[in-house]
Amino acid sequence: MFRDQRITPQQHIDFSRRFGRLMIHVLHQFHLAGHPEILTVSNILEDGKPIGLGDAGKYWHSDISYKELPSLGSLLHAQELPSEGGDTLFANMHLAYDTLPAALKSAVEGRRGVHSYLAQYGQLQKEGNWRPNLSAQQIAQVQEVVHPVVRTHPENGRRALFVSEGFTTRIEGLPDDESRALLNELFVHSVRPEHIYRHKWQPHDLVFWDNRSLIHLAGGTPDHLRRKLYRTTIEGDAPF
Ligand code: OGA
Ligand code: MN
Prior knowledge:
Keywords: Dioxygenase, Iron, Metal-binding, Oxidoreductase. By secondary structure, the protein is α+β, with helices and mostly antiparallel strands.
């Protein structure tokens, strides 16, 4: 985390690019004008229209885990912050794996999980007004993919759980009810309080996190308070 970064969107992009290719979010509606590498995360309406994704992070997730090459990390830069709420929570998925009860550890060994951008999309459309209907082209960009449930971090060699409520829909090769039950146990375990860091935003904070090691959640902002952040997302390698 870097406090008090008074940088422009172009500087945010240039810095992010030093770590890899930048991913362009499928919701082009919420790209920052002139900078498709930046996704606007905001609950603000201008002329009655959302300027950004207002419900980003409503469910625990790792950014863009629904692609063959998920994200290595994301950089979120605070633009406008509410006077209360608006925290972002991070759960450590290495710890989550290390502390899994033995029965769960063996249940996930060698398993693969299905990840889909659409996992919660319909639900999010029902809960709020942030989610546009996806075009056929957008749907074509988010075909579901399969990743190991336990991945090895390519840089530190540690194992991490790699499933989330936001994007993981089922465990391959298990009957639906078993898959659902196992995922629910993993979701609950992942976000035990001792695995969590809660970020309280300060003006101009730039937070850079590792999507291979963490899942994250928007803690929620009261509707009447404005919040706006800019996000870049760096492409990573295929999980193994
Ligand atoms: C994101 C995200 C959470 C938040 O931008 O990827 O999940 O607190 N944001 O805004
Ligand atoms: Mn996110």
